Structures
1.
Amino acid sequence: MVARARDVELECERLESDHFWRVVNAFRSYRAHTLERINRAEKSFRSLPEAHRRLLPHFLKHLDDVRQCALHNAGVLQDVLGSCNHMFENKDYDFVDAAAESATLASNFDMDKLNSTLKQVVRDWTLEGAVEREACYRPIIDEISNHFPRDYCNPEDVHVLVPGAGLGRLAWELASLGYTCQGNEWSLYMLFVSHYILNRCPGMEQKTLYPWALQFSNNWRSADQIRPVLLPDIDPSCFPDGSNFSMTAGDFLEIYADEEDAWDCIATCFFIDTAHNIIDYIEAIWKILKPGGVWINMGPLLYHYENTPNEMSVEFSFEDVREIILKLGFHIEVQRDCVESRYTGNKRSMMKYVYDCVYFVAIKPGRLQTNADGTP
């Protein structure tokens, strides 16, 4: 039995290592992958009849501009990769230098993940993302400020957890208000980029990205495809004295498995539908919340693993999810349906996805530990 347990442990370590290097390879492959896509667009244009090409004499110049934007993005991503050499356990992973090419191109699936992360940067760390943040993050921030008013309690004593923290903006905002806040994220794509922004980008608008360089469809104008964004829109290093902000890497269910009655507040934004089994998430949130603690949720139910081959997934309606929440013992104090929100949208695109999200505030019955004056 001991040998079998060790074999399982070694297999888990191997799978984690394989995943780690797949993500690294995606960052390495960005340059070659994007150039191949742009070269394919150029080849297709050159295959048109000459009379058709003459109708758009500027198109090849546009593709050259797209190519330069993609090369710029590749340089930024190599900087991101280089900044993460000692990110985990102070190990040096010997990442390739900025000029190196990966031996094997990453899969389209992995490159889609990386390109999605670039769009997440717009949502979390640019001025253009302020509209999305206002729709999704502001209700959560306001609820925490109302539930734990800084005029009546020491915010450092209020411990807030943000599972599925993505690139860390919501957790950063809460920590900047003085709350002790920890973000948790599983995706290495997100962890690499958030580490770079939070730790290597002091000051405002230090970096330029072209997040839509590979968006060849639904563009109103050619210039929209090569539109830059500046990041970050605030200085991530600016915190009030005594602020406590941290990020943990790993699966939410594993990282917090041994905790109980540990958190005053848990804030989930576009997170609970990432579960294989959403009941596991709800039970874990119940367990780690203190009695009297508050769970604030915003998001849809776009189940992450619904169509993923060989992955277990159960998909419940919100009616069912609400029933589960109540049966586990939560009291739902606030519920707002059909809260309109976009996610990593491009405001200059012809196509936009709009979610009708559910926002709710649930309380774990009991009493929070109070200070001498009776405040949390």
2.
Amino acid sequence: MDLQGIAALVTGGGSGLGAATAEALAAAGARVAVMDRNAEAARAVAARIGGTACAGDVTREEDVAAALDAAGALGPFRLVVSCAGIGTAKRLVGRDGPHPLEGFTRVIAVNLTGTFNVMRLAAARMAAVEPGEEGERGLVLNTASVAAYEGQVGQVAYSASKGGIVAMTLPAARELARFGIRVNTIAPGLIETPLMGELPEEAREALGKLPLFPRRLGRPSEFAELVLAVARNRLLNGETIRLDGALRLSPQ
């Protein structure tokens, strides 16, 4: 896909992976709508890249539709990158009893249902644009996690949500192929995000030693580089790509 002049939507674009992705897409010539629940953060990133800010929640159809309207006003809408998500750490059975059901459903709602909500609405918009080279109309790129494969103790809800995103990838790609829309997923490992920055320095140093090579935390810019590579390589479709330095998570 030629990124020059296309319109793109990045959810969770106010910080971390989403902000880095929005910046990289804009630098590559795309016109980017930045969606985030934090309106101020979305505006800051959009101002920095010359894009459009959209405050909203990915679980709300009207919020996603408004963000897609904003993206569509920028040019032919061909790319959506879903980076919005939340984390949680709660044991299935802990000192306080069983895992709260509302905690599980909230993580599923944001991470899995929110990703599905964005994908279905974005794909419907992409299906209406003129096809490009080889009939390609667009790309849906979702964000999972290595926890989809090696969820640790306390990650049952998070792993379920990210595993669902991985499981959606191939059937969605098969279904949307008739429109010339590709679907891929990136499963990052340990990335230097604002959430990671809240940990004590010694904890961050210990985590940085877990990947085999390079032996450090990943950088949001490296996630963004992979987004660009996936967008530009038309043969990548229906695939989940681990971005983790050969990391394999231990049980704890």
3.
Amino acid sequence: MTPQMTLDDKLDKLLSILTGMESAIVAYSGGVDSSLLAQAAHMALGDKALAVTAVSPSLPQAELDEAVEVAKRIGIRHEFVYTDEMDNPDYLANPTSRCYFCKSELFIKLNPLAEERGYQHVIYGAMMDDRGDHRPGAQAAKEYQVQAPLDAADLSKDDIRELSKRYGLPTWNKPSFACLSSRFPYGQAITEEKLSTVEQAEQFLRDRGIRVFRVRHHDTIARVEVLPEDMPQLVQEPFRSEMVNRFKELGYTYVTMDLAGFRSGSMNEGTQLVSLSVEPR
């Protein structure tokens, strides 16, 4: 019987994988997983690791600002690329495979950058818990030969948070984040105006100290998800009135609270998810 790997064993495996790569570009969003990957890549590769953040309307400015600060704390070199998924009608149509088109656009930008700069690999933050989940982006990674060292090292989300805490990363207890396009029901077209509306609505919650939230966009209805312990705050005055007024300024007619609370990926509920078979463009 194979002995169970300890967290230190997994860390050693991760660093060994990264060292063997010799150089790498890290697809870095500033989230929990990619921040730990950037930290490990910097430890293993030093100046031969580069963190690159994709800038697009689906990334809130607050998340971009946090990514910059975390990269500075890590010490890794950090650059930006501007992605054009909003020019892709397949992405804008918002199918269940939307993430495939988003990740493809990212890797289409990162692979030539790696080749131009002499980096041997492009890596991203998929990890063990993502196995078997609805992850169209994983197919894009496979097609564009982008590797997932966290997954290869058998690191779970709990492992990643524990290591992040060990290295003093402020993301160790950061709530999971998905791009703003995940706030829309599949099949509802994505536009920059809608993304901006959701970003501003969520910024209202962030500014008032709510840490874990989603504002799901159902045309004229804003469906707000927060943790159960934060629900009383939403209905207390003056918070309730201020939220309703702000959301109506943004164009919502109705403001609702989802009594089921925050669920990552709640737009997948009741949706027939299909696997995707698409040739890379």
4.
Amino acid sequence: MSDADIGVLLADDQQLMRESFRALIDVSPGFTAVGEAGDGAEAVRLARQHRPDVVLMDVRMPRMDGIEATRQICAAPDTSAVRVLILTTFDLDEYVYAALRAGASGFLVKDGSAADLLTGIRVVAGGDALLAPRITRRLISAFARQAQPQSQSQALDTITDREREVLALIARGRSNQEIAEELFVTVGTLKTHIGRLLHKLGARDRAQLVITAYESGLITPGSA
């Protein structure tokens, strides 16, 4: 693997699915498959061994499912920089919220195109978050109902009013360009605000900011 390549670990209990993903990775410039795991426990072990840029993580696997594997990978100091892209067969999967809360940076359905998968890997490897078009804000809101909101003063007392505005718009699914236009700031200025939010709230990426916005009570499920 060259220094420029994105290292990808494949975790899926179906061998045929792993082989299909590996074939795609192997023929795609800029990507290298660094290993394959048939269950969550093996995914955790291989993530520690290879330190990939991205783990393509199936949700339903034996011994340890993808949610727990994601939690362990994202929480461990030696693999905290590893990004996890969750893959599932179901576009209305009950694990969407749990996966994001565990630290996943993205979520895609397996029946998407090869181009979408490679784009998703690049986006997540670059430090941003990714949700499949069919995994809507409405769905995240529905699963956020399961969480008990924290006090806003506890979660958000370190951020400014402008940063609070930015956070609310991120949670509502606005793009950087849309937020910049709504707040009458440049995209560069907006990125500075987002960087400060990530630092102050201890968030890995945009997906974690969405979770924080809901769990703090800043955004309520189903709100406009």
